[in-house]
Each structure stands twice: as structure tokens, then as C-alpha cells.
Amino acid sequence: MPRYWSELVVRRDSSFENVADTFGRRIAFTVMDSQSGYAAPLNFLAKQPGPNPRYAEVVAPCVTPLGALTAVIEGEAEVAPVDSYAFALLERYCPHLTSQVRSVARTEPTPIPPLVASPGSFAAPGSFDALQAAFLQAHRSLELQPLMQALLLERFVLPDPAAYDTLSAAVEDSLAFWRLHPIARIVHPAFIVRS
User: Fold this and answer.
1) How far apart are the two ends of the chain, measured CA to CA in Å?
2) What is the pLDDT of residues 91-102, one digit of tens each?
3) How confident is the model at residue 136 (pLDDT cuts 50, 70, 90)?
4) What range defines the domain where residue 136 resides?
5) Residue 47: HSE in the Cβ half-sphere, 13 Å Cα cutoff
6) How far is CA 148 from each of CA 49, 114, 115, 151, 182, rounded to the nearest angstrom?
7) Same domain, yes or no: 47 and 105
8) How far apart are CA 55 and CA 42, in angstroms?
9) pLDDT of 65-101, one tens digit each?
10) Quick check: is 81 in a domain?
């Protein structure tokens, strides 16, 4: 099962040695329905010893991993979770950005988001099966090899739906932590969670 995680990044020239060193400062989040940019980091932070609230200010929504990374680089936040796959792509194509940060922590790996499609999107009989087969065989296509390599993809696999069941519970845990976090009441309205 393909997996990913969040890298909690700080500016390379900062004095922070671990995530606890950033407590009391500012953290940047992407959007509230992001696993890597919000839910996974909150679960990670909830398990860390230290003061609560962990941060004095939340910079959000940064919308994308690049937005969160940029918030750290530009000094708007001291730390931000960045999707590991997005970070790998940024390292490859934007090293001038990733060279300005370093990771001080990593969340637990979770199943990577699957590619999904609406059943109504496939009018012709068998077209869904054909598309699925094309993805599953893409790594064998010489024509697609440059694209796969450019996207840092080794291959596609069928997801195991049961592997994603734990994510729902993790999201609920992160929301429960956020409800108790006083800073939640003063950030962007999209980040306000009601009981």
C-alpha cells in the first residue's frame, strides 16, 4: 500500500531542533479537510508533551503544500506540515525553495489518497475497467516511463478500502483535539469546529 506522511518543516537557518521548540510560535495549515496539511499534524501534535495550546497563532488557510512552505520561508509561520509527496516534487522541481527549510518532525505514515472517479463519469460499458487497467499497467509502458519518472511515481496499485477506515477515526481525533485548542476560535472561519 503506497503511504505518505507530513514533514513538519522550519526555516533552515532557525534554531529549532525539534517540534517542541516551535511551541508558542506560529503554525501554518493548508485547509481543514487535508490529511497531510491538517489532520495528521493535529494527531501528531496531540500526542506531544508540552503546553496547550501548542501555538500562539495559526496561519491558515495556506491552501496548498506550497502555500504552507512559503509561509515558513517568508517568516509568516515558524513551522508547517508539508505533504511528503508534494515535498518530494518540490525538492525535485523547486530546490531553491526546499533548500530554505528542514524537517524537525514527521507524522506517522498513512495510506496515500487514492485516485477516484464518479460512476456516472463512465457512459460506455467497460470504460471504468479499461481506465483502471490503464493505470495499473502504466509502469510497464515505455511511452509513459518519462511521465512516471517526472512525477516520481513507481506504479499504481489497487487501494485496500479497509486501510482508509482508520483515517476517519484519526480525523475525528484531530477535530476533538482542535475543539479543545483555544486558538481554534480565532483563526479563519473555515477552521472553526463546532461540537
Assistant:
1) 34
2) 999 999 999 999
3) very high
4) 119-150
5) 12
6) 41, 16, 15, 5, 44
7) yes
8) 11
9) 999 999 999 999 999 999 999 999 999 999 999 999 9
10) yes
Examine the domain organization and report whether 89 and 16 are in the same domain: yes
Q: Of 156, 137, 189, which is closest to residue 2 (Cα–Cα)? A: 156
Is residue 156 a part of any domain in this protein?
no
Phi, psi of 20 (to 5 degrees): -60, -30
Domain co-membership, 86 together with 132: no
Q: Total structural domains in the chain?
A: 2
User: Residues, the chain, total?
Assistant: 195
Amino acid symbol at 73: I
- Tell me the pLDDT tens digit for each residue of 143-159: 999 999 999 999 999 99
- Does the residue 11 lie in any domain? yes
Query: Are 24 and 74 in a shared domain?
Result: yes
Grid coordinates belonging to 47: 500526542
